[in-house]
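Researcher: I've got a protein sequence and the SMILES for magnesium ion. Could you write out the 3D structure of the bound complex as structure tokens? I'd like something to compare against our soaking experiments later this week.
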Amino acid sequence: MKIAFVGKGGSGKTTLSALFIRHLAHAGAPVVAVDADINQHLGPALGMNEAEAAALPAMGDRLPLIKDYLRGSNPRIVSAETMIKTTPPGEGSRLLRVREDNPVYDACARPVELDGGAVRLMVTGPFTESDVGVACYHSKTGAVELCLNHLVDGHGEYVVVDMTAGSDSFASGLFTRFDITFLVAEPTRKGVSVYRQYKEYARDFGVVLKVVGNKVQGQDDLDFLRTEVGDDLLVTVGHSDWVRALEKGRPPRFELLEDANRRALRLLQTAVDATYELRNWERYTRQMVHFHLKNAASWGNARTGVDLAAQIDPGFVLGEGAVVRV
Ligand SMILES: Nc1ncnc2c1ncn2[C@@H]1O[C@H](COP(=O)(O)OP(=O)(O)OP(=O)(O)O)[C@@H](O)[C@H]1O
Ligand SMILES: [Mg+2]
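Model: Sure. Here is the predicted complex with magnesium ion in place.
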């Protein structure tokens, strides 16, 4: 199950991603955590100290390795150089699974021990000016998108991405790669305006978008969110002393998280799991092809000097039954 946390800067994306990851790990579920946010804070939010977080390998620096592994023996993708962030898998491509060891995890993922279990953490690495543009060849989130487009995840397996709702994710199609997107919003006009914009993009692509209200204090905040986002409001989280203690460098045990917030996390998982029924691998594959053609035409063909439309394998549908040829 692929889950994105998006929202305005400072709304609590990283905090809620980290809490949800802790909740899943505590429940014994396999988790791959991905930090694709401009402000790379997921490692520290999962309890890493500065030195440990700084030592994490950046996916953005390992794009050639990721591309070479994923293209495998796919005859339509002649080199890693011609593989762009939207290049879809086809016959001969290697696929990724949540529970396995593979060279991509070896190079990019590090284990993080949490109460109840370890998760794999992957980080895009710090963003530069050129990563925030729309037509970016070396985009950091491109590595995440390639992994998601080659990932065959099943029920009870989780990939949680702490992400920015930036224009590049709309241009590349990254925003369509999730079973569910949690939009973290504080009860403010700015928080809600990010929701409206996201909803607008999401409309034509069957994106499941739910709002998680954060830093909600009392009835007036709740009423405000309810009025502004209606039924898309899934749950709200209040100020958490547990989170504050973590920020002070005194991480409490996960069991000590406030009851109301633990309930909220359970509700998030229920919402995630319920989307399994809505899965449609055929549509998922079709959307990656759609965005690949769009990116090929707008910058990819010119950038690589080849016709990237030829990379599409018309007979290929990604899915849990997909055959991996290694
Ligand atoms: N429910 C909460 N209770 C207490 N503190 C919170 C809560 N949610 C977020 N915070 C605090 O608010 C600050 C911003 O949260 P966080 O870093 O998660 O936001 P973000 O959306 O990831 O921000 P950025 O855009 O900078 O990545 C942090 O200091 C965090 O500890
Ligand atoms: Mg953040």
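Model: The domain at 2-311 is CATH 3.40.50.300 (Rossmann fold). The mean pLDDT is 93.
Researcher: Great, I'll pass this along to the crystallography team.
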